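debug: dumping io for the single-chain case to check the tokenizer round-trip. Nothing else runs in this session.
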Amino acid sequence: MSEIVVKEVSSRKELKKFIRFNYELYKNCPYAVPDFLEDTLDTFDPEKNAAFDFCDAKLFLAYKNGKIVGRVAGIINNKANKTWDTHNVRFGWIDFIDDKEVSNALLKAVEDWGRQQGANKIVGPLGFTDLDPEGMLIDGFDQLSTMSTIYNYPYYPKHLEQLGFEKEVDWVERQIIVPDKQYERTAKYFRVAEMSAKRYNLHIRKFKNMREIREGNYGKKIFDVVNKAYAPLYGFSELSEKQIDQYVNSYLPLLDMRFLTVVEDEQDNIVAMGVGMPSLSTALQKAKGKLFPFGWFYLAKALFVKHSNIIDLLLIGVLPEYQNKGVNAMLFADLIPVAQKMGLKFAETHPQLETNEKSQVQWDYLDAHIHKKRRCYQKNLK
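debug: decoded output
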């Protein structure tokens, strides 16, 4: 029996190996979607990821016979622990071959480090914040993944359960058929949207370009809604000003403004927001995790030339005081005609907590079905 050796990542060269292990493990999987090497390098760079202002992290690689066979990140989000009065260590970016000794050694490395930092429970997969990929896939292994979610082989959850991990929370993802103009049930969305707008003096705001967003400081306003809307959700830690600037500068310029919708009150304060993007999953698969030399071409083509027939719904947020008042319907009443005009066939929701009833009921009048489930696991540290 070969010995499993776990080593802490201590150089940029090893960090690249850490990232590329995922590409190698899934290179022949038609459902996995790789992230860009450049983006993930930035994620683990304390100079470029504002989450390091309140997070600590360690990265580990597992070796067998001198070959990399697994990886994992250990993360302590001090802000989330303070917010929720917990002492958790998170594990994320976990990948391993189908060998229980490997998965055990990786998770033990995170557990040992967590204990040294005062943690009494390990949870995951989670990222630095809720805007990182989170949740291990437990159903939907034959469905194409998205740019913002985790794909993993079916043996992953089996390993964790055999190692004593139990369910903490679950998320679900839905595939929605974009309704045609004759779909009667969807008409209710438009009626509810109209009534909500009149009753609460609300209106839709659209943007022409990033300059308009920057001049009106709308990026910060949009993420302020995210902070307030997501505050009660599992493990959420409020995004800092520095993080918000990072997301605005990195991701908003890539958006098709037709898929960015905000709802404002009569004083032009944002009370809800929704953002989507034509799926980049196939483009990212073709790029094989590299922006250069040709990855940018596939990305640009998918964004600006020939888009997918799927739209990924990346973020939806409604201020707590406006939830259950039909404001979500205003967002979809704006997005549905855009999707119809562009010939989109399906929408893919972001992961939503199964216990978040306010979020789940918004799909009642669309042709939507759950096609993926993912789980955050937990284990007490003795």
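debug: round-trip ok. The mean pLDDT is 90.
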